[in-house]
Each structure stands twice: as C-alpha cells, then as structure tokens.
Amino acid sequence: MLYRAQFTQVKLLVCVSIPASKTGGLKTYVHISTPLSWPDARDYCRENYKDLALIESEDENTNAYQAKNSSSTAWIGLYRVPWTWSDNSSSSFTNWRGGEPNGRNEYCVVETPEHLWVDVPCATEFSFICQEEYEYNLWALHS
Ligand SMILES: [Ca+2]
C-alpha cells in the first residue's frame, strides 16, 4: 500500500505577559487629585489600577513626580517601619527629604512639591499616585 503523508499547517499563537517589575521595565504612574487617607488611596489604586506607586529607581521617581502637578503633595506606596512598599516589596532606592523619616506616628510617605519624600500620619488626606498595570506582551507565531 502506498501511504501518503499529509502535513497540515499548524499555527501556534503564544502570548506571554510578564509584569514590568520582573523585566526591569519602567512603571507608568497616574495622579489622582482627590484627597484620601493612605489606606483609602491604596484601595482605590488597587481597584482601578495596580497599586499605589512603587518607586524603585531615579527614573521611576522622576516619572512618578512628573505624573502629578508640581504643587501637589501626593501619597506613594511606601509605608511603615521597616519601610515597605504596599505590595510588600522592599527596595534600596529612597528619596527622603533631609531629616526624614522622623515621625513617631508618621508611617506613610508622600512625595512633596519639592520632589522629596516625607513620612506623615497615614490618616491625613492627600492626593495620590497610582501605578498602572503594565506588562510586556511577547507574541510568537509558528507555522
Ligand atoms: Ca515626617
């Protein structure tokens, strides 16, 4: 008998999403001008974006600062002692104003109009900077 192999063209589409934080990509920030406490601001960011702003480098710090208007004081995702980001990550990058952090009951951090970090009481209401969900999408097509 004669067998004739028939090859059917097979296409494989692969989509891989990797959080920017795992690939070294820069995060995208959004300033929300409505004043909220730090916990409420974090919840708002988690519901509508990804989280409060995590800032892990000078470039990201510049982007976060530029996301808000220069006169605003805005929450970022840093809180507590030891200082931790709202997603429980830690990072060596800091941008404290001279003399900060200094507060006994100041466990949450704002970015000031002077582009510096200051710890203040978490219940104070400030505008805030959210971090957008940002991913690399890698597509591969095999045929
Ligand atoms: Ca302080």
UniProtKB/TrEMBL annotation:
Keywords: Disulfide bond. The keyword Transmembrane helix does not apply. The keyword Lipid metabolism does not apply. It comes from the Eukaryota. Residues 24-131 form the C-type lectin domain. SUPFAM superfamilies: C-type lectin-like. Pfam families: Lectin_C. InterPro entries: C-type_lectin-like, C-type_lectin-like/link_sf, C-type_lectin_CS, CTDL_fold. This is C-type lectin domain-containing protein.
